């Protein structure tokens, strides 16, 4: 066996550079690069190795460890999990800064390789700078925080352990079922240690998507249930997009006349103009989709986790005879809510169902009626009003008006995702990018950067509230440094407007959410000059005074040569009341607030509608 002597860090870098993936018949590097913020825990070991493979595995510099991991995750999502990135940090706070991003990737089933530096394996200089010590066990270090939010976790205490660990890491990163974050901790002394690695370890390897077909019994059972259904509904999740099943979805819906409702991750699987697309479902859903959900006797849930926002906290499917077919590549998700499992790749199963089910008009006519009604609502709430400040819905409508078909919209937490789920009309596939599995404030700008890196030909619109912008904005500078242009719409509603509305509905008061009602020193509250702040990081920035000014600013941003930030003030009290569904947020059983008893009684009425038998 031929060997080559390399440090652990060098072997890791060469191995990553030798991994390839096949995307639409084209062979591409599986890892588009490595985001790195160096410190004493990775600069001399893995950092030295990365410097030697720049042509095949480029290294990118970021400003914040959590943000760079968000960028890598967004890149993977925009690449439909076919390509991905790695992230390396020093030991200590650099490493633990990535834990939130790991949780986000875990919830959303998205691949990212996290390579945090770690304490010395030989323990000679213990405790080292930034080491967290557990008096009960020297085996426990801060990086163990990654264990519950990683789909695969390892710590390389000897260089040769890479030989067996890395194939397992690749297995998880490319697996449709197990896909998620992989964390491999790199003790800083081991990174620099050398070993005679087999040359075969660094041979090029091409990874292809594995497609698992349905079990014949489960397929026949699902066909029987769907054949007997009178009011079926299809719910599409992110698994449809990752499987490339949009065409098969359209074929099944059109053949059988089945309405299609969308989760945040599945939105855009069908164009908004499709006759059977009834829009977002659940808490932030359309009136059309939720009406079909309440009546459905069979729900075909495709590639979705059926989380609480999708199911109205298990209260949405009101038909007592409703059966759910869980079509999912992961058996874990396929059996939720007492679903009847159909474990399969989404595209293969949808194709099989469309081939075997009889053609029918189904609910085509009713879908057309409800679509028209909801489109009227959308037109109304997204049109400019005479209020002093615009609503989020009006801002969404303005951006939609001036965007092109291939422009991508990016958002995450707060009120904007709800408005987008209800109101955004997806014009082309893969142009709607919402992180709502973890609802992570601070994702937006960093995520937008990852989307732009994956789709360089598209303009990427980042919608972010002032609260989320304040949490994480540093990658504005990174986008300019990398030449990756973003169009950031910063919606300033004076604090945490979304949660303030939720607080008002559950407690009847406003406290500690808006700047005008939160903790501050005596005197006027400080006002952040977001335009000046964005300009200080190199962005083009301006304040838009109203909807017409916003449209004009967006047009200027589209022809600009670098990232633009457009700030617009919005009314924090307004959200779209039409559509939507109840969400289980507990209301205090005892309270001195006005109307507390009535609020709790209404809450308990909805609790009784929940199905908690699976």
Features:
614 residues; alpha/beta; Rossmann fold; 4 domains; 6-stranded parallel sheet; 23 strands; 36% helix
Describe the structure in your own words.
The chain is α/β, with parallel strands linked by helices and 614 residues long. The chain has 4 domains: 3-207, Rossmann fold (3-Layer(aba) Sandwich), CATH 3.40.50; 216-371, TPP-binding domain (Rossmann fold), CATH 3.40.50.1220; 382-569, Thiamin diphosphate (ThDP)-binding fold, Pyr/PP domains (Rossmann fold, 3-Layer(aba) Sandwich); 584-614, no CATH class. Helices cover 36% and strands 18% of the residues. The chain contains 24 helices and 23 strands. The strands form 5 sheets. It has a 6-stranded parallel beta sheet with strand order 5-4-6-7-9-8, sandwiched between helices. Helix 16 (392-402) packs parallel to helix 23. It is globular, with a radius of gyration of 25 Å. Belongs to the TPP enzyme family. It holds the Pfam family TPP_enzyme_N. Residues 414-567 form the Thiamine pyrophosphate enzyme TPP-binding domain. Keywords: Hydrolase, Thiamine pyrophosphate.
